[in-house]
Amino acid sequence: MIPTLPLEIFDLLVFLAVTVPFALLVRRRNAIPRLPALDRSVILPRLSVVVPARDEASGIGRAVESLLAQDYPDLEIIAVDDRSSDATGAVLAKLAARDSRIRAIRVDQLPAGWLGKNHALWRGAESASGEWLLFTDADIVFAQGALRRAVAYAVAEQLDHLTLAPRLLARGLALRAFVAFFAYTFIALWGAYLANDPKSTRGVGIGAFNLVRRSAYARIGTMRALSLRPDDDIRLGRRLRGFGFRQRVLNGNDFLSVEWYPSLRAAISGLEKSMYSSMEYRLVDAVGVLLYLVATMVWPFVGVIILGGIDRVLLTIVVVCLMAGLLETYRQSMRPLTLSALLLALLVPFSALCFAYAIVRSVYLAETRGVRWRGTTYPLSLLRAQSGLEGTEANRSR
Fold first, then answer.
1. Which residues of 38-56 are buried (b: 16+ CB within 10 A; e: fewer)?
2. pLDDT tens, position by position, 125-138
3. Mean pLDDT of 348-355
4. Which of 99, 189, 306, 370 is the most buried (most CB within 10 A)?
């Protein structure tokens, strides 16, 4: 007979699993502060912005225009067209002809051992002349003054890496709920705020804005060291932290924005390449995360309805903590807080199940066909091999 855990003990464990991270979030609710005011006394170094793009003709013009509108004094923009089959190249060529700060690079063939975006980032960085490199995405829109303010802060604080969380724009209730849940897991559960704690080894990188000192980028082995990582952005931050470089993560809500995905279906599909990678391609880790999601994000909402006594009390507290935590991270990542945000908090079980489905889909596709990204399929054995190599290198660097 398989031993069973008494329901009261199970609910107590769920209670602890949710309330402890929530208490830490409350305690450090300002641990990811907003980008401070501009320090005008800082001498700004040359900055190279690297923008990889594949089939981004519909949006890259707006993104690059927002970079051209910046008041940064010594700026170059390197846009890398990664084998696009649409008009991305033509859009970039037109912009480059109009403004000498833009240099367009075309990639026609992907070398073996590379993911497309990672190779495009590497090519762009190799062509850059700046003392600082900014890796960003082709759909990020920058507000006026964003670059000057961010680089001045990084220089004044003697950082090697600054990453900014953008404002996430989402259309439709289901997608907004999912995006809010994703932000909650990233900040409250995974603990992205720990990157700002000098006692922590947590490293964070966000693809929308990874500002890196060139010397630090070279020291970690450039993007070559991450050539087969689908989660290249966060791995860049983790690798920099692992090598001992100074890092900060700030809220860039007021300075950059992105429409993450156009629909919930697109979001789940888009995550298929990176969810399993974030778990180092370990099946046992994926199963553990799935069990955690169901136990802590779905069961409490069900248990409050069907149970009574101390179980209902414990699970009610859990539900309140989940909703409050999600609303807090929503305020930080999407802003502003409105009455409709309360509905998103009530949809935590739905969002958790969608997140769980994204994990299952990512694991299944990777295990059965490999990881497909930007038109190329990569064998899981190859990706696992680099994952193990990266872990060994990170341990040696400490």
1. eeeeeebebbbbbbbbbbb
2. 999 999 999 999 99
3. 95
4. 189
